[in-house]
Predict the 3D structure of the following.
Amino acid sequence: MIGPIFLRGELIEGFREHLLNVPYYQVIHQGISCVDNEMKKVSTDKVNEIINHFAHARFPIVCSAGSKSTIPFWDYHLALQYDEDKRTAIIRELLVREPNQDHCRKALLMAYYLLVNPKMGVERIQAPMNLSHLVDCKEFEAICMEFIPHQNITYLS
């Protein structure tokens, strides 16, 4: 069963090994949109940097394939931090596999439904990219999206 889990403890080393062997698009890195990046395997130093960002994130969400799967981690992963008010979760890292657009959409939905609720206390998610094209997607019809063009930021609430 595929599902989101927080990357903590012993899962970190497994995720490190996975990133060393599986190519991903690094769509967002250190809070900056990199939508033109190519899908590729990254070096050990780059993987260690990514792992460090995930390990220190408030919400290091990875998509797990489940204990019975031969692939431990799936096609999209995000690391998010709080803003100063702890009401907005800001996407700092986003890794996806092919198809890029489809998995970006799924990753955003996963983060939104996992975090924007009374239990977690997050009111909105901030993505450093223009997501206005998702307004017409059926999955996003219950989500309010606000794009701030001069900052290239989209809020999902």
In short: The chain is about 25% helix and 30% strand. Residues 42 and 116 are 31 Å apart (CA to CA). The chain has a mean pLDDT of 89.
